[in-house]
Amino acid sequence: MRRLIENRFGMLALVLIALVAVYGVAYATRPAPVAPVKAEPVKTPIAAVSTVCPDPGGAMVTAVTPPNAGGGQTLIEDGGKPVTMDEPGKLWQKTLPAGTDPVQVHATGAMATGLEAAQTRRALSGEARGLSGVRCVDPGADAWFVGPGPAAGDIRLHLANVESAPADVALVVYSGEGQVIAERANGLILKPGEHRTVDLKKVAPSPLIMALNVSTGRGRVAAAVEATTPEGVDWLPQTTEPAKRVVVPGVPGSAGRRELYVAAPGDQDAVVQIKAVLKDGSYALENREDVEVPAGSVVTVDLSTGVTGQPAAIVLTSEIPVVAGLKIVGTGSRTDVAYTAGAPSIDLGSVVADARSTKAVTSRLILSAPDKAAAVTVTLLPREGEAPAPIEVEIPAQRTKEIILKGSAKGFSVVVTPKPGSGPVYGGRVMEERTSGGQFVTAQPLAVARTWTLVPKAGEAPSIVLPPYSS
Q1: Angle (nearest 5°) at CA 49 between 172 and 244
Q2: What is the pLDDT, as a whole number, of residue 471?
Q3: Which of 12, 326, 351, 387 is the most exposed place for a label (fewest CB within 10 A)?
């Protein structure tokens, strides 16, 4: 009996030894672990674009697609017979009569790749006297604007729903005294194809300065803001969404007042560091290095003595997300006004639909490289005639460079393409006209071209096809 038990324990020991040996060999010869591969987004050409020119009555509307391999078409609906374009590189321009509804521009295929449209109005008299312009806007679910408030003038929000489903719109207005609560600002319903103009004085009459957030809980809308004040009339460009670093590019080097707007729309106070990127260097502005912005409010900072006379970009950094814009006031006995705003770097290139060059009118590109040195190619697309040779532009690190655009007097478009290895580039196009009563001016921060989009890589996951579990 004792021998039987000993034999059993001996056999167990031999089995354990054999298992250890097998697992030991397996462990020693196991393949090296494969590092997980990060799924990088894929760069894909944009195949469809819809954009809206918000109030084109009395303005010249321009639409263009940069030269490419061709294919697809652009449909322009301006209230008359729809116009179809199918040739990249050719400008479509038309001055539309007063009272024209928003112009819709739809493009597919290669005609959508880089499509750009804008409206520019010129008036010699009346409350709309001066130059005013706006990049035609894409429908979206969220948009931010910063500038003068309804107490400073006639501030109108233009909304258009070009989608096939209704859109519900909510507005939030921030003032110098804090967030403005207005129940009438919410519950706006736009039917498919509907457009509407909202007088912000009826929504929030008190703010002298404001930040405005337009959002939708359902659907998408094209939103644009027109500001008419005693200083002149122009459009507030959309600014980047609240961020801890904001770059406001395209500040011209001409004379005149420069006023910065900064808003902290969250529930925490912000301390914002302000730096100007000029043609000869990057500097914190004396006595304006730090600006305190109370939570939910807007402040203004006069930058006239810091940047007037030099082309510039303004860089703001903060531990609390902010939005920002800047007012440009021209010189003369009768002033004109323009606006620029926080904008992204144009890593995928940028297209400006409308620029002019005559004896009286000058168009400029203002390009800034606030971080690393940058290099771009600037190509002009004339309305008529042969295109001039591309311009190669190098911008040293932490510098701003101004380029005078010499193109066709009948109008031209501009394509800006960063070179491989270039640092981030920010920019704006400024158009100025000399008149007997003073300087007309309008500005447009450069937006990322509607050329490419980054699409996340798709992967296999059971959750894609399996229904959610519920007990």
Answers
A1: 40
A2: 39
A3: 12
Domain presence at residue 286: yes
92 in any annotated domain:
yes
CA distance 332 to 307: 19
pTM score, whole prediction: 0.87
Residue matched to tokens 């803001």:
225
Cβ-proximal residues to 94 (8 Å cutoff; 6+ apart), any chain: 60, 61, 78
Number of domains into which the chain is organized: 1
- Amino acid identity of residue 72, one-letter, is G
Distances (CA, A) of 130 to 112, 155, 251, 331, 385: 32, 17, 18, 12, 29
Q: How many CA atoms lie within 13 A of 183 on its CB side?
A: 0
Range of the domain at 417: 42-453
User: b/e string for 3-25 if b means 16 or more Cβ within 10 A?
Assistant: eeeeeeeeeeeeeeeeeeeeeee
Distance between CA atoms of residues 133 and 235, nearest Å:
6
Condensed to tens digits (0 to 9), the pLDDT of residues 307-356 reads 878 899 999 999 999 999 999 998 877 889 999 999 999 999 999 999 99
Q: Is residue 468 part of a domain?
A: no
Task: Annotate 343-366 with b (16+ C-beta within 10 A) or e (fewer).
Answer: bbbbebbbbbbbbbbeeebbbbbb
Nearest alpha carbon to residue 428 among 133, 190, 147:
133
Instruction: Round to the nearest angstrom and report the end-to-end CA distance of the chain.
Output: 57
CA–CA gap between residue 379 and residue 382 (Å, rounded): 10
